[in-house]
Structure formats: C-alpha cells, structure tokens
Amino acid sequence: MTSRVYFVKVNISDPIAAVQDKLLRLLDKSNLFAFIKPFDSVAVKLHFGEEGNTGFVRPEYLKVICDKVKEKAALPFLSDTNTLYKGSLTNSKDHLKLAYQHGFTPAKVGAEVMIPDDQDQAQVREVNINQEFIQNAKVLSVYLEAQALVGVAHFKGHIMTGFGGALKNIGMGSATRKGKLEQHSNVAPVIYQENCVGCGACVEACPVQAISMKDKKSHIDNAKCIGCATCIAACNYLAIDVSWDSGGDVIQEKMVEYAKAILDSKKKKSAFLNFGIKITQECDCLAKDDPRIVPDIGIFASTDPVSLDKACLDAVNKAAQKDIFRELHPKRDGNKQLTHAANLGLGSLEYDLIVV
Fold first, then answer.
1. pLDDT tens readout for residues 216-267
2. Looking at residue 210, which CATH number applies to its domain?
3. Are residues 262 and 297 in the same domain?
C-alpha cells in the first residue's frame, strides 16, 4: 500500500520566520493532525541536542507544531529520554537544563518539557512484543499513556544505524537506558591496534571505564562494555569499530522492534515530521557542530514513519548524487531498518511525494 508523504522545500538562506511559514503551510495542506481530539495529551517526541551541537530542530519550529496541536484544543508536551552515553543528557535534571538552554522553554515553544526518569520504576513499562530480537521492550510509560504522539526528527547520518529519522527517534528515543543497552548489546567495539596512537580519547570518553591503556594502546574490557559506541565517535584515527561479524548489524532491527512497542499503542493516533535541514554525517548526540554533507532539502511529513524515512533517504541521496550515508558509514546499511519496519507492519516502502 502506498502512503502519502508531504514535502515543503527549504533553502539554506531561508530565515527562521520563512521556515516557520513553510512549516505552517505543510501542516495545513497535509492536515497532519486530523486524528488529534480535544483534550488529548500529545507527546511531541524530539531530541534537544547535546551541548555544543546545533543540528537539532529549532525551538521556533516546535512552537509552530505545538500551536497547531493546541488549535485542536489538545495538550502538547515536549519530551525525550536520557541517554546511554556520557554527556549532558544522561540524567533528567541536566537534560532539562540543557533543553532550556537550547531554547525549549515553555514560554518559547508554548508547551511544557518533560524528561522522564527511568530510575523511577513508576515511569517505566515493559511491553511484550515477542519479536525476533526483542521479547519485552523497556520503554518510558509517558509515551504509552499519552493519547497521541507526534515524532519530530532531524534527519541525519548515524554512526551505528547509517541514518536516523522517524523510526530511530521513536525506537531508540523512547527506550529506557536498559532498553537502549539491550539494543546496543552484541555490538562491543574492537580496537585496531595498528591504527591506535595511544591518545587516550576513548578512555576519557567511555562512560563505564571499560577502556584502559596497555603498552600505549587502548584495550576494551568486553565484560564492562555496554556497546554505546561513544568510543567510536571519540576516536579520530579509525582505530575503533564494531565487530560486525558478531551481530553489529542487528541494532537496527532491535531499534525498529522497540518502535513497534510504542507505535502499536498509537494506531491512527500518531504523525511524524522529518527536518531535512542541516543534514550532518552524525547524530545530534555529538557535542560538536557537525557540518552539512548536502544542501538543505526541506521538511517532510507523514502518518507513516517508514515511508517518511524512505522519502528522506531518497531525497538526500538524490541531492548528493550518490548513497551518501553508505559512503560515510560503509558498514552500515540503513535500508535494514526500513525493510524490517515494513515487515513488522509499521508502514510502507512505497510512497507518493506531495509537494506543497
């Protein structure tokens, strides 16, 4: 079955107000929020960006989205979960503080910001999905309890999944830290000793002290490693990578199965927007200002997260005139997440692109 994906073009030179106007036109033409009812609690799931990162979707654009939700007499709130890696988003207090610093305040976006704490078991739920890789998904209950869900993702590359969009925003982004660990399990990195210069960047970056220096080379204790891939991002010498032969390509399927745990509770009560603006090689978890890898493309919207991500991937590759994410992450095939999601009934690989 073919799904509809709506699209509005955005240029690098567009001022913020012009992008807001285009986003509003996209929401109006697509009638994206038709399923939202009065008094619905609407979880607007996004990523607030790591400290020093500027790729995240701007708060000015979230205000447009929240205002449209409120036109339905519904109650939106912005939310994300704490990260597995070490950084400013590891706990709810610091996470909320950084979200505010990045401009996501109630006054600016017109909605409260909620960072659930998975240390509080009352905020955690296990969902039995009985899938190929995941039996019980460990997620934050706030996404199950909300009457509706709006996923807002920055479409970009990703060091572990090739690219990240709507599916990753929900699958990885709604999981508890234990759930994130489950998705990353069996992807413990390996050190290529011939490339290691002994700089110690990976030792400093590791959140669980699983890396140490021996004979001026890095060594990973697999018994301590949580598979978060922070060390891969920290290494500037291509000395660390996942052992793909031991299950490193399964993370995308696990991620999609986690997305199913959330989306099955939101049938006909969810919508998704991908911002193909400032498209970068890596995700917004990196604490640095990643440069663009292609020109800005635009904003995409759909009630089908699979078609949405596929349309974005096709548009990025068309702009790059090559499979840019595969070139940048040659061992990561992002099509795995799309195929697995379609097989699980989360959406269609076929879409009609409607330009507004």
1. 999 999 888 887 777 877 898 989 976 655 455 799 999 999 999 999 999 9
2. 3.30.70.20
3. yes
Beta carbons of 217 and 289 less than 8 angstroms apart: no
Q: How many folded domains does the chain comprise? A: 2
* Helix axes 16-30 and 59-71, enclosed angle (nearest 10): 30
Do 155 and 200 share a domain, yes or no? Answer: no
Domain co-membership, 126 together with 152: yes
The length of the chain is 356
- 328: number of Cβ within 10 Å: 18
Distance CA 264, CA 230 (A): 31
Residue 209 structural domain: 188-242
Cα 190 from Cα 239, distance rounded (Å): 8
The C-alpha atoms of residue 263 and residue 266 are separated, in whole angstroms, by 5
Q: What per-residue string of b and e applies to 166-178 under the rule 16 or more CB within 10 Å gives b?
A: bbbbbbbbbbbbe
In order, the DSSP letters of 264-311 are GGGTTSEEEEEEESS-BSS-TTSSS-PPBSS---EEEEES-HHHHHHH
Structure confidence at residue 225 (pLDDT)? 87
Q: What is the DSSP letter of 227?
A: -
Number of helices (H) and strands (E) in the chain: give both, helices first. Answer: 13, 16
The whole-angstrom separation of Cα 255 and Cα 170 is 9
Taking the C-alpha atoms of residue 26 and residue 29, their distance in angstroms, rounded to an integer, is: 5
Domain match, 236 and 272 both? no
Residues 15 and 59 placed together within one structural domain of the fold: yes
Amino acid 248: pLDDT = 57
